[in-house]
Amino acid sequence: MKVIIIGGGKLGFYLAKTLQEQKHDVVVVETDRRTCTEVLQGLQIPVICGDGTTSEALRAAGAETADVIVAVTGKDEHNLVACQLAKMMFPVKKTIAKVNNPKNAPIMRQLGIDVVISSTDAIARQIEWEVDLSGFKYIAALGQGEATLHEIMLPENFAYSGYKLSDIRLPQQSVIVAVERQFEVVIPRGNTQIFAGDKLVVLVKGNELDLVRDRLKL
């Protein structure tokens, strides 16, 4: 998946690093030349030193083939314009913007931004799972991002297919709140069995999602 990140500061760098580790195609657009050099040296990924609110910079970053545009600059108006431009001029499937002033979030949604998030931690987690192809999908954040809901599709080779939930030792800061199976929703208990092909809704606190993944052997 190809992701263009507008803004190469601390959050942009972190997101680029995370997505690069997941083997996604990442390009960063940044106006400050020194920051461009730092991103390039730190990650060895394509960096466009230009203004992400212009069609020229987006085109140079390859917006024609981008799946996601993520705008995380320090100015809400820049994030809005970059996302709107990506929607209007390029066939970008999803736009995600950080909003620095939460009061601007409703208007940004009204103006067509697909996902608007004000919490830095929440946007990091959402972007990570929005573009993840491993069967995990972010649903929502609770308590300003302190806890998050995720949807997990169990693969055909799921190691614990047929096991009861009580037989699987999930992290203490996580709980399976629902199981969807062939359009039926089950509120799980300890004796509930889970099978390959099931869709789980999992509530996790903090950074427990990676541990959930490990415990489920996904």
TrEMBL record:
Quick check: keyword Disulfide bond in the entry? Answer: no
* InterPro entries attached to this UniProt entry: K_uptake_TrkA, NAD(P)-bd_dom_sf, RCK_C, RCK_C_sf, RCK_N, Trk_Ktr_HKT_K-transport
Any idea which UniProt keywords this protein has?
Ion transport, NAD, Potassium, Potassium transport, Transport
One of the entry's Gene Ontology molecular-function terms is: potassium ion transmembrane transporter activity
Which parts of the sequence belong to the RCK C-terminal domain?
137-218
Q: Start and end of every RCK N-terminal domain?
A: 1-117
Q: Which GO terms describe its cellular component?
A: plasma membrane
Tree of life domain:
Bacteria
Q: What is this protein called?
A: Trk system potassium uptake protein TrkA
What is the native source organism of this protein?
Candidatus Faecivivens stercoravium
